[in-house]
Amino acid sequence: MKYVVKVERKRNLVEVISNLGGEGVSKCIQCGSCMSVCPVTLVGFDYPNKKLFKFVQMGEEDPLLSDPSPWACVACGRCIEVCSQDVNPFSVYFALRRLQVRGFRIHPLAKEAVGSIYESGHAIFVDNSEEREKFGLPEVSSAAKSKKDLNEIREILRSSDISDLGILPR
Amino acid sequence: MRFGFFLGCQIPFLKPEVEASIRKVMSVLGVELLDLEGYSCCPTWMSVPSLDLNAWLAISARNLAIAENLGVDVVTGCSNCFSVLNHAIYLLKDERRRFDVNRILSKFGKFYRGTSKVYHVLHVFSDFVDMRELKRKIKYPLKDLTVAIHPGCQLLWPTRVMDVREENPFYPEKLKNLVEILGAKAPYYSRLDYCCGAGTSVAYIDYEKSSYFVLTKLESMKEEIDPDIIVTPCSTCLIQLEEMQKRLKKDGKINFEIPVVYYTQLLAICMGIPANEVLKEESMKKILEVIR
Amino acid sequence: MKIGLYICHCGRNIADVVDIKNLIGYFKDKVNVVRDHLFMCSEPAWEMIRSDVTNKLVDRVVIAACSPYNHEKFFRSALETAGLSKYLLEIANIREQCSWVHGKNKREATEKAKRLIEAAISKVKTLKPLDDLRFEVERSVLVIGGGIAGMTASLDLAKMGFKVYLVEKEPSVGGKLIKFDKIFPLNDCASCVVSSLMAEVANNPMIELITYAEVEEVDGSFGNFNVKVRKKQTYVDWEKCIGCGACTTVCPPKAWKPNEFDEGLSKRAAMYIVSPQAVPKKAVHDPELCVNCGKKKLGTRRFLRGGKEYLTPCEKACPTKAIDRSKSWNPEGELLNFNVGAIIVATGYKVMEKETFKEYAPHSPNVITALQFERILSPTGPTGGKVLRLSDGKKPKAISFISCVGSRDVRYHTYCSKVCCLYMLKQARLVKEREPEIDVYIHVIDVRAPGKDLEEYYIEARRMGIGVIRGKVGGIEELPNGRLRILGFDADLGMPVEVEVDLVVLATAIELPEDSKELARKIGVAVDPSGFLKEDHPKLRPVESTLSGIFLAGCCQGPKDVSETVAQAKAAAASVASLLSKEEIKVEPFIAKVNEEACSGCGICENVCPFNAIKVNEVAVVDERSCKGCGICASCPAKAIDIQGYSAESIIAEIDALVG
Lengths: 170, 292, 660
Hints:
The complex is a heterotrimer.
Chain A: H1 13-19, H2 33-37, H3 39-42, H4 49-58, H5 62-66, H6 78-82, H7 89-102, H8 108-120, H9 129-134, H10 147-158
Chain B: E1 2-6, H1 10-14, H2 16-28, E2 32-35, H3 48-51, H4 53-70, E3 74-76, H5 79-91, H6 95-105, E4 118-120, H7 121-128, H8 131-136, E5 147-149, H9 174-180, H10 202-205, H11 207-224, E6 229-232, H12 235-250, E7 260-262, H13 263-270, H14 281-291
Helix pairs in contact in B: 2-13, 4-5, 4-6, 7-9
Chain C: E1 3-8, H1 20-27, E2 33-37, H2 43-54, E3 60-65, H3 68-81, E4 89-93, H4 95-99, H5 106-126, E5 133-136, E6 140-144, H6 148-159, E7 163-167, E8 182-183, E9 188-189, H7 190-203, E10 207-210, E11 213-221, E12 224-231, H8 246-250, E13 256-258, E14 267-269, E15 271-272, E16 284-285, E17 304-305, E18 308-309, H9 313-317, E19 334-340, E20 342-345, E21 350-351, E22 367-369, H10 370-377, E23 398-405, H11 420-434, E24 439-444, H12 454-463, E25 467-470, E26 475-478, E27 484-490, E28 495-501, E29 503-508, E30 510-511, H13 514-523, E31 535-537, E32 541-545, E33 550-552, H14 562-580, E34 584-587, E35 592-594, H15 604-608, E36 614-617, E37 619-622, E38 641-643, H16 648-659
Parallel strand pairs in C: 1-2, 1-3, 3-4, 6-7, 6-20, 7-10, 20-33, 22-29, 23-24, 23-29, 24-25
Antiparallel strand pairs in C: 5-34, 8-9, 11-12, 12-19, 13-14, 15-16, 17-18, 21-30, 26-27, 27-28, 31-32, 35-38, 36-37
Helix pairs in contact in C: 2-3, 5-16, 6-7, 6-14, 10-11, 11-12
């Protein structure tokens, strides 16, 4: 399989990724140290981080928009700790998620989690008050029980780019 | 000693017994935990941070602002919240980002200053409480117990965003020391740092791939130290290691199950707090069998 | 006064930004001659200037070009050849200070160029003809560092008839190279390369070898430096010591510590001889380590025990009575003082310690640095050259080498340490040659083997079955029984790779030792951003330091292999010789000049001079040799002192033109 460098109509993806919070992608020298400890790589996703970084550097957008690897990142942060060039590979991975999201490729889990936060203030929310009582625990003091606080969360979500994605309830 | 107690979502709603153990142990040690009124999801990696940077930072900053108003640092039992909030603090050191976030927060009279730090529950024992004091509170030390410790990734890396750090994050000592204080052995095994396979998502995306981590980890534990129990300070790892073992056993991939506990559950039992106050019934029998 | 202005295009460097035609038009009526050239530093342009001067068209020259740092001397020679004082020249730097930094703003750059040139014209009008200062030359050289670089340079200079003081910090010369087993690309014995040099420097009558000594102070300047060297106290009478080593074997184990010569892999006693090949082969006493047998501290008066004079084991063992603990040794050692005409700094390198690299299990005794492994391979090392791991003395089944540990890594050093790829290949090959059944892997970002015979050396290693894995290692996990699991990445296959081995060798970065930095501060030589000593120009003056008369050789200037080190040492020796072989040296005359009539003899200048170069004896008198022309004394309240070539008049004229 090959990829073709689009000399004529290349987007400056380094800048795009940087604006989405990906730090230092242009500094990557493909040394491989992040790959040697990355869980996503260890279980064999197609385009683990450094490969995607190369696509970013080469301005090759297609694999970036469709590859599921970024969504498998476990946020372990080990890549940041071992990077020899002060790239923040983790942040680039998350920027790639955000890039895909802007192309309306949102992982269903993420959609669900954001929806849940909008509804209850929590990504995971179940009514377990009976069980909590059994353990002698007080009511959870979160936005879930306070309309005012929940509205603040909703306002934050609504005033962000997320509102353009059509996943927040109207 | 006072902290704002950031509950998160997973612990209060899925693992209330863990919350109970944290609250009880802290009260024995005289550490006061303040509720953070109106807090929300940190927000976890697979949610808002995956979609938008500014919204993530605003929600994290809003949570932190609640603690700032109480004038306390934050402690959380959830490694995921610990990681998300600390990354947010790190990013919010940038003045422009802080300005953007405060423009949103000011709409509802909140303001993020960056004055409250975020610690993990484990750090309270390892770095704030006097170790001798902790040892004095142990009524029933563990004997002849081999513990496989699993610190979990998000508590170790990246050190640059954390205020409490391991001397060597690749060979962590804090959890080991805290388990040894209880009288148990906590020997090193080669996959100690290895991911549990849950993190934010792999577990949900691909069972095969996710279980590979658990299998690799279990294999190393079994072969190298043959532990009686696994101890972790991460609620996500706790759920993953418990659930995956059940499933792997059902699928015939393993023929054993090593009980898993959250650190404060074990600590609570050693302090003499009744087991049924910090453990769920379904796992209590197995765990007590191993400990006694 | 006829002023000529010569404007350089510098190819497109200047001309692309600064409008040269505009400049010519602007200055046409302000000076006598205006000319431009594509490359003012070329021979035709030089000839153009010379002929204008010879033909009396101009008698003052302004050149608008690059920094005077580059070609000032070249332009001066045109004036000199034409019979004009070469100091009637001024350079306006319109490249570094104009076109290079204002590339986006052409119109304003042209205006700035005008100002810079006008300032130069105003200054050149005030200049007076000056002659070089001429000094007699001290025909001797100080060489700091007795490794391969220092020894080579010393011997070359000695053979050319110069007196050399070779100062070495350790008790023996030989440097790092004497610790190695074999060296690439010929795999010849390092000891054979370096031992003969060690013997030669010790026996050459033109070389005064001063080991176990450090340079304390350097004064003066090129042609005549005054040097103070501290010879450390050895607590052994080296006149009597025959290097038999008897004292070192009786020193009790309580007084042992990790042996520096074996990179900490063995122990040495408080009485020690650096190595079996030490030159001079003399014992040294380490008082910090000594347990003072029989409570006989250094300087204790002789006393009897059991009717006989008590002697410590070392005293008793010494056949020549070179050890005498009752003597009151001066812990300060001895201060030597001598003059030299030039200095060569050849202080070498150190490798980073493994402790810095937390992801590579530094606490494991089976993770070692490459320099430690070099000792394991060496026949004089702790295993006698057998490939063993030290945790249990067993032969390893597999060894992994990890490259770029601290090099090419923004957390530590951004530079490539240059020699690691090849010495790893060498060590791997030596292992394979001795123990073919040991599996050997090398983890590299990429193999860097440019140079004669070196690529071939690498290819041969691959053919020998050494596994080269392209990809930086991210971590090492410790296994039971002391084995180690390498968490690597194989870029060729695009997947992570794990290798379980018994021994891990880290190719840690080469860097300048702290004490060399301290020395650089002391003698005034600059350190560059990479942390090595800075050469004056990477291409044109690669062995000269930033301070005239001080030269650099070997790894203190940057990582290099033995061939390059020797080449640089020989180049440094030749450069020193070319300067010191003359009867006298010429020095720029930009020093303080006292107007004796205006001087009141108040003495302020004497107090402020940082170089002790001005003394008041009725009136102030400048010591031409010591004056550096810094200008502090020119703040004289009576305005009696000026710096030649930079008089107050010149500087004011320049400023007026710039701001006017």
